[in-house]
Specification:
By secondary structure, this protein is α/β, with parallel strands linked by helices. Helix content is 49%, strand content 14%.
């Protein structure tokens, strides 16, 4: 398959110094939905996630737990792997920055940048935020504190290696001007462009091994270890085999189509990472896709408040498919969003139980009753209905490209409501009673076909539910999903005479506090 038919998507790699929280579950879910959508478009997708296991925070947390840092990192990394599995994430690879494949290639990347003259050593005193694992300037602080962690940075003095970030000021400015969609959404692009135009400073990219004995050794200087960001960012290429003789994955999938990240690490990905790649003479990613934060009951998650949501526990209490739907519907990619149990139950019962679940049951029940459980043959096309569905698809594809998964779901549920209204308006039960058999069969065929389209529309977000609907319609899920989207969105695709397989209700109603 040619390179233009590939799609490489990554999440950020979270620190493995704590268990996964709902914020990272949200991020990996955004990436999963886009990966599944791109597969529907016919692209060969490579989807990467993983864990960042070096740095001061990692060492400090392990010591506080009275554990070896290697053992602690492995345990926490396994939790992130389990999250991906339990949340039905379709990633192709999981990279740990402690793996030899990463360490060797990260050192090679350092050497390449050094050979090109963009690394130098000097003594430095600066304000270091351990939460961010980065040095701060006074202009980065709010009331003397890091705005992301609400902590006063510590003064750190040592001799480190530095990356000549300032050398790429003009190049990055030109790149930003030529690629206004490099960072999305637009407000995140503007933020980075403003920071860029305020001037870039050279950045420290190593720490003294005496103070931080946990990291990748700097090539040629065993007294220093790589600064965690210079190490971690390279995972996007080291996971593809960059730096090895066998680098077919790198050649096939790089540059990345989308790095999916949170807004708090936008600067590292939109300014530092591109400059690092420029220094190494490598292609830049096509897009940095920046999402917002998730709040719980309207408040920022905090252990002291006690409102931290455990994503593993959440899907033990509620159905995974419903959780995936709620997060993608309620939390727009371009902004912050809120999770509350009350909102979840309302959305579940309204959209899933009474909406999609009820519509599916109504259509299948009528096919059983009025068409002997088989997809009936239509006598004529319903042009008005078909035109309506075409417009839904046009809007759906447009907003999915813009990462507005919430709007794609909103359009899909308008489609669900439209089908429900069509049933209420045309009253097939009354038509059947009056002997209008052909009209009933035509309506039921178009409703079954509409249900097939809805199953495809929800598939990136709720793959299991999409599969259940396709199976209920008597279709071969594997064959259906293997078709490219331009074929799936065509009307009159469901074979006449197919025997339906009505199963259990998709979404039984939930009560608040029901476990």
């Amino acid at each position: 398959m040619s390179k233009k038919n590939t799609f490489y998507i990554t999440t950020a790699i979270p620190y493995a110094n704590a268990s996964p929280h709902i914020g990272f579950a949200l991020e990996i879910l955004y990436a999963d939905v886009m990966a599944r959508y791109q597969r529907l478009l016919g692209h060969e997708v490579y989807f990467l996630t993983g864990t960042d296991e070096h740095g001061q925070k990692m060492l400090k947390t392990a010591r506080e737990a009275n554990r070896s840092v290697e053992e602690f990192a492995a345990e926490k990394s396994a939790e992130f792997m389990r999250l991906a599995d339990e949340w039905n994430i379709s990633n192709n690879d999981f990279i740990r920055t402690t793996e030899q494949r990463h360490e060797t290639a990260a050192q090679k990347f350092w050497q390449l940048v050094d050979e090109k003259g963009y690394i130098f050593k000097k003594s430095y005193t600066g304000l270091y935020c351990y939460g961010c694992e980065s040095f701060k300037t006074e202009k980065d602080l709010v009331d003397g504190k890091c705005p992301d962690h609400n902590r006063t940075p510590e003064i750190v003095s040592e001799e480190n290696y530095f990356f000549k970030l300032s050398a790429f000021q003009k190049q990055l400015e030109a790149f930003f001007d030529e690629h206004p969609d490099f960072v999305v959404p637009p407000n995140r692009y503007r933020e980075m462009n403003e920071i860029l135009k305020s001037g870039l400073d050279d950045v420290s990219i190593s720490r003294s091994k005496e103070k931080l004995p946990w990291g990748i050794p700097v090539p040629g200087d065993d007294s220093q270890v790589m600064y965690v960001w210079f190490d971690a960012l390279s995972n996007y290429i080291t996971a593809l085999g960059w730096g090895k003789e066998d680098d077919e994955l790198y050649k096939k999938f790089w540059p990345a189509n989308a790095h999916v990240i949170g807004k708090d690490i936008n600067r590292f990905h939109s300014l530092l990472w591109p400059a690092m790649l420029m220094a190494a003479g490598l292609e830049l990613p096509k897009q940095i896709s920046v999402h917002g934060f998730i709040y719980v009951d309207g408040k920022k998650m905090s252990k002291s408040i006690g409102n931290v949501v455990d994503p593993a526990e959440l899907i033990r209490v509620y159905p995974l498919e419903a959780v995936r739907y709620f997060l993608m519907r309620e939390i727009p990619f371009d902004n912050d969003g809120n999770f509350s149990e009350k909102q979840f139950i309302e959305r579940y019962n309204g959209d899933l139980a009474n909406g999609l679940g009820n519509l599916t049951n109504r259509i299948l029940t009528m096919i059983e009753k009025y068409a002997a459980g088989q997809i009936p043959a239509p006598t004529e096309p319903d042009d008005e209905f078909i035109d309506y569905v075409k417009k839904i698809w046009e809007h759906y594809k447009k907003v999915m490209t813009e990462w507005r998964i919430d709007l794609a779901l909103e359009a899909t549920w308008k489609f669900v409501a439209h089908c429900d209204q069509l049933i209420s308006d045309r009253q097939p039960w009354a038509m059947a009673k009056n002997g209008k058999t052909e009209q009933v069969q035509t309506l039921l065929y178009h409703l079954a076909e509409a249900l097939r389209h809805i199953a495809i529309m929800i598939f990136p977000v709720m793959p299991e539910t999409g599969e259940k609907i396709l199976q209920a319609l008597g279709l071969d899920v594997g064959l259906e999903i293997a078709k490219p989207l331009d074929a799936l969105e065509q009307w009159v695709d469901i074979p006449v005479g197919t025997i339906i397989k009505k199963g259990e209700p998709l979404f039984p109603r939930l009560l608040l506090n029901e476990k």
